[in-house]
Amino acid sequence: MKPGAKCAVCVHPDKDLINQRIIAGLSVRAIGEEFDLGRMAIQRHRAGHLPREMLKAKQLTEIDQADKLLDRVEGLYDKAVIIMEKAESEGKYGNAVQAIKEARSNLELVARLIGELKSGVHVNLTYSPQWVTLRQVLVNTLEPYPEIQGKVVEALEEAEYVEID
């Protein structure tokens, strides 16, 4: 193909059908005859462009599957809430508590699926009384060594702003 030239298959009005035929394993000659394309154009498209097209299709399929999964989990949440309300109204508090647990679990899963909840645990020690005391002990102990004390304080301040997973 000449520099700047467009792929004959990519600009063809029946590009999707051509891609389907290529994926189905039809011969390049048969596809070329059906769509009035040259054998080399189809081969170049198959080698250079079809993988991109397949990747796009795969990504769209994955997005669709994720949306369906999210819908199913949200549906489970809705059912758990209905069961909880029914059990509560009937005075079956053990069942209501179990439904609450299921609803909570489903909410956590939905949150994870939509990226609002990270599964790692994050602990902020900056305001912990033990950390504040330890920090003060370190700084006070290094008072006779101002150069070292300054470096330790600087390092501690930098470490307080680092997120560790």
Record keyword descriptors for this entry:
mainly alpha, 165 residues, 0% strand
What does this structure look like?
There is one protein chain. With 165 residues, the protein is mainly α. The protein folds into 3 domains: 1-48; 61-113; 120-165, no CATH class. It contains 7 helices and no strands. The protein has helices at residues 15-24, 28-35, 39-48, 50-89, 93-113, 129-141, 146-159. The mean pLDDT is 77.
Query: What fraction strand?
Result: under 5%
What's the structural domain tally?
3
Low-confidence stretches: none
Shape estimate? flat
Which percent range fits the helix content? over 70%
Structural class: mainly alpha
Gap between N and C termini: 50 Å
Task: Give the SSE layout.
Elements: H1 15-24, H2 28-35, H3 39-48, H4 50-89, H5 93-113, H6 129-141, H7 146-159
Helix pairs in contact: 4-5, 6-7
